[in-house]
Write a structure and sequence with these properties.
Helices cover about 45% and strands about 15% of the residues. Helix 2 packs across helix 3. The longest helix is centred in the last third of the chain and has 11 residues. It has 4 helices and 3 strands, in the order αβααββα. The protein is α+β, with helices and mostly antiparallel strands. A 3-stranded antiparallel sheet has the order 1-3-2. The protein starts with a helix and ends in a 7-residue tail after the last helix.
Length: about 70
């Protein structure tokens, strides 16, 4: 069974750049860098390039989502 965040991100690339992250989350560049640099959103650093695997983004969304009771 897929979570809501996995379904929502189905068409997102498997590995995102900071620019991609901004687009997906509809946030500014500074906010995106803050998330990565603070460790709130895990990433992979290759020299001076930051890459965010989609799975890390899914985990971040799941940790920071508000849960609603549907019962």
């Amino acid at each position: 069974r897929f979570s809501a965040s996995e379904v929502m991100l189905e068409k997102v690339k498997d590995v995102l750049t900071v620019r991609d992250l901004c687009s997906v989350l509809q946030i500014g560049r500074n906010t995106a860098y803050d998330l990565v640099n603070s460790g709130q959103l895990k990433c992979i650093r290759i020299k001076n390039c930051i890459r965010i695997p989609k799975q890390y983004l899914i985990e971040y969304i799941q940790r920071n989502s508000i849960q609603f009771n549907t019962g």
